[in-house]
Design goal:
Distance between the termini: 8 Å
Shape: globular
Number of strands: 5
Order of helices and strands: HEEHEHEHEH
Structural class: alpha/beta
Radius of gyration: 12 Å
């Protein structure tokens, strides 16, 4: 699966897209950045409710293919601009984190 598959599926709105062809080979859910930084797998879709600029740094350090901001939260302008500069994909959904994770498994086969 790729970032493009998530965008084309209609369940996640693209905020920034660094690489539509980036592979997504797993998922990770978490909001405590230090735990995500130490445990999220490379090429994963990271589901979080965090929407501040520090999520970009964590995603970049871990090689995360896409950040999915759940629960309808929206990143601020600084976060969006930093994600563009750092080539980090941010997607958004109205779904709660559990529901977003369930969707990734059931619909997208993760």
């Amino acid at each position: 699966m790729t970032v493009k598959d998530l965008i084309d599926g209609g369940d996640f709105k693209a905020i920034t897209v660094a690489d539509e062809a980036a592979p997504i080979t797993g998922g990770y859910c978490g909001d405590l950045l230090s735990i995500v930084m130490g445990n999220a797998p490379e090429n994963s879709a990271w589901i979080t409710i965090q929407s501040h600029v520090n999520i970009v740094a964590v995603a970049s350090l871990r090689g995360i293919s896409a950040i999915i901001i759940a629960h309808g939260f929206t990143p601020d302008e600084d976060t969006v601009e930093t994600a563009k500069e750092e080539d980090v994909t941010i997607l958004k959904t109205q779904l709660q984190p559990f529901e977003a994770a369930k969707l990734l498994v059931e619909k997208y086969g993760l």
